[in-house]
Amino acid sequence: MKVTVTPDQFKLARAFTISRGSRTEAKVLTVRIEQDGVTGWGECVPYARYDETNESVTAQITGLPAHFTRQELQSLLPAGAARNAVDCAMWDLEAKQAGKRVWELAGLPEPGPEITAYTLSLDTPEVMREQAAENAHRPLLKIKLGTADDMPRLEAVRAGAPDAKIIIDANEGWSAEVYAELAPHLVRLGVSLVEQPLPAGEDDALIGMERPVPVCADESCHDRASLPKLKGKYDVVNIKLDKTGGLTEALKLREAALAEGYKVMVGCMMGSSLAMAPAALLAQGAMVTDLDGPLLLSEDREVTMEYDAAGVHPPSAALWG
Predict the structure, then answer these.
(1) 8 Å CB contact between 234 and 266
(2) 44 neighbors 57 (Cβ within 8 angstroms)
(3) Residues recognised as catalytic
(4) Are 182 and 155 contacting, i.e. CB atoms less than 8 angstroms apart?
(5) What are phi and psi of 5, to 5 degrees?
(6) Cross-strand bridge partners of residue 28
(7) Could you tell me which of 124, 121, 187, 119 has the C-alpha nearest to residue 150?
(8) Alpha helix (H) ranges present in 137-192?
(9) Please, are residues 121 and 16 in contact by the beta-carbon 8 Å criterion?
C-alpha cells in the first residue's frame, strides 16, 4: 500500500468572508492510496479553527504505518481532516477493487440528487442584498453572519431574495444575549435554521433558552463522542467529513444522531468536487444539505460534481466511489 499526499489550491469565484476572516482560494490536501495497481483518492481541508495546518495534517498522514485497513484507520488517527482524506481514499479504493459503487459497499440505497444550500459571504448589507438578488432563483440560501450588527444584513438578504428559504450560520459569533434578541426577528423573516449561534465552549447558555427556530450544532459536534454534550441545546447536527474524520464515522454519527432524535444537516468545508463526492452519499434524506463548495470556485477537478435545478447529484464513478 502506497499513500501519497499533495497540496492543491483552487481559486474562488469571489472573496469569501465569514466572521473569522476572508479567503480567495481553497487550500486542500489530496490523498492517493495505491494498492496492486489500483488507486483511490480523497480530499481534506485542514482547518485552523481545529488547530490544523497543511503541515500538521500531512505529518499525520505520512506517519501512518505501511499497511492498515479502513477499520484500523479509525483508531490510528483521531477525528479530523487527516483521517477524512485517508478514509475516503480507502472507500474509493475498495469500490474500485470490488467493481462496485461505495453506496453498495456501505449498504446504502442508490443515491439521488439533493437540493443544496448556496452560501452568501459576510459583507455589508448592500452587497449582501446584491448577492441575494443574484441568487434569488436558488431554493435555499445560507447566510454567513456572526457580528453584533447582523439585523441589517438579514433584512437586506430577505429583501433581495423574498421567496428563497434561508438558513443562517453565525460561526460562533453571537453571545446568548444577541441570539435571544435576534430570535423573534429570525421567525419574522422566515429563517428556517440557525447554525452554531454561540461559541462551542459557551453553548450551555442554550439550555432552557427558547428556540423558535431550530438550532444546529456545527463546531460543537464532531463525531459520536460529541452527542452527549448536545442534549437540551440543539435540534440539528451538522455532519462534515472533515470533522468526523471520514465517511466511516460520518455514517455512524448520522445513525446515532437520528436515533437520539436530532435532525441532520450535511455540510462541507471550502473544497473541490472530490470533497463533496462522499458527502453527497451522506446527505441523502438530510434536513439540510450544504454541499456548495464547487459552486463557489472558479476552478475545480477535471471531473466535477453535477449541479442543476434538482440539486447536487451523486458523484460519477469517474470522480469518486
Answers:
(1) no
(2) yes
(3) 144, 240
(4) no
(5) -135, 130
(6) 8
(7) 124
(8) 151-160, 176-188
(9) yes
CA distance 315 to 302: 13
Residue in this structure with the C-alpha cell 506517519, named with its chain if needed: 63
Secondary structure class of 117 (helix, strand, coil): coil
Distance CA 198, CA 318 (A): 40
How many of the other CB atoms lie within 10 Å of CB of 318? 8
State whether residue 119 is helix, strand or coil: strand
215 DSSP β-pair partners: 194
221: CB partners within 8 A, 6+ apart: 227, 230, 234, 237, 238, 239, 243, 253
Look at the chain and count its residues: 321
Question: Position 267: which residue type?
Answer: G
DSSP 195: E
b/e string for 31-48 if b means 16 or more Cβ within 10 A?
Answer: bbbebeeeebbbbbbbbe
Amino acid at 186: L
Question: Digits of tens for pLDDT over the chain (321 positions)?
Answer: 999 999 999 999 988 877 667 888 999 999 999 999 999 999 999 999 999 999 999 999 999 999 999 999 999 999 999 999 999 999 999 999 999 999 999 999 999 999 999 999 888 999 999 999 999 999 999 998 888 788 999 999 999 999 999 999 998 989 999 888 888 999 999 999 999 999 999 999 999 998 999 999 999 999 999 999 999 999 999 999 999 999 999 999 999 999 999 999 999 999 999 999 999 999 999 999 999 999 999 999 999 999 999 999 999 999 999
Q: Which of 80, 70, 79 is nearest to 35 (CA)?
A: 70
Q: Do 257 and 272 meet the contact criterion of CB atoms below 8 Å apart?
A: no
Residues 72, 56: Cα–Cα separation, whole Å = 21
Residue bearing cell 471550502: 270
